[in-house]
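Session log. Operator J.P. requested a structure for one protein chain; no other inputs attached. Running the standard single-chain path with token output.
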Amino acid sequence: PSLEQIEQDRSLFMDAQLTYQKHAHPGDKPIIQDQGAGVIVVNPPAQPLEPDELDALYTLPFTRQCHPMYISQGSVPAIKPVEFSITTHRGCFGGCNFCSIFFHQGKTIRSRSIESILAEADLLIHQRGFGGTITDIGGPTANMYGMTCTKTGPCIRTSCLFPSLCPNLKSNHSQILKLMDAVLTWQGGKKQKLRTYVASGIRHDLALQSPDYMQLLARHFTGGHLKVAPEHYCPHVLELMGKPSFEVFEQFEDKFTQMSRKAGQNQYLVPYFIGSHPGCSPDDAIQLTEYLVNRNWRLRQVQDFVPVPLTMSAAMYVSGLSPRKKTIHIPRGQGEKKLQLALLQYHDRRNAKMLANYLSSKNLHKLLARIRHAQSQSELRKGR
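Structure written below.
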């Protein structure tokens, strides 16, 4: 549909998205849309690099620094977390509806050789400022390294994991286990004490497929905490996000805790959640808050949903429809978006007035009392 048609009927935006996703594959047809003043042509993605091409790319003499023009302005803070990290692969087959990696890296995993990764590690440890820790070894999703598909040619699925594991996916962790063993051997052969962590995030549902992977992850590759992304608590919101059920996250949490204790490590998960995703009503946000309060989880980092171009979630936001063309609630306006963020960070006293007014109007006085207690505790901790 043209831009003019979509402006007259926003449900057509979902039609456009569904059509685009069918053709967003290397070698497929371009997508053309009439914009009135002109025409937009979106070419299909390029073929992903072959492993040897990826290896060759990482032999180039990158400085691992921001551009000199930014150094003169005080540098770029975002360079610090990645300055001493290693990219092991490109692509992600998770297919989360709010994420655009599927469209700009593709879902085909292209992995570097172990030799290439270790060669970069050798360069890293001699770089100025290196303190003995490779802060992250991974990719868009760390535990997809080396995974392949038995099927050749285009595939209409945007996710190999949702709503269920695709039978064509070779989901064993054999290749990443080889990589992790090689990294540990490499570390042991150096005179200086070295540590390598996985900080780029993993798919917890995929990790549950391999106890050996989880054991290595907990024993050697977690620096006290591990990032995971359950994203929400309510089943229908998770379905719209293209994420596994919350029960799967709880299974992973139990296993990770067991593995950490077995390894003699006191470690914990850092969960990520999104507020105001299409389909998430204030009542859904309250359900998530009740869970957070029950667990005494006090989130420091949360995400306010942003409709990223090309994503299914953006199409839901514009059209007001689910991918199945059902009408869903869309959080719009700063009022509701601020409320959902406040519910995620209920412990922050800056949200006290907003939460008191809203929860009182919903007669949720017991929840409000528990939240006020949490806010008081947070203030006491700040004063220490």
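Operator note: Residues 50-221 form a domain with the Transcription Regulator spoIIAA fold (CATH 3.30.750.210).
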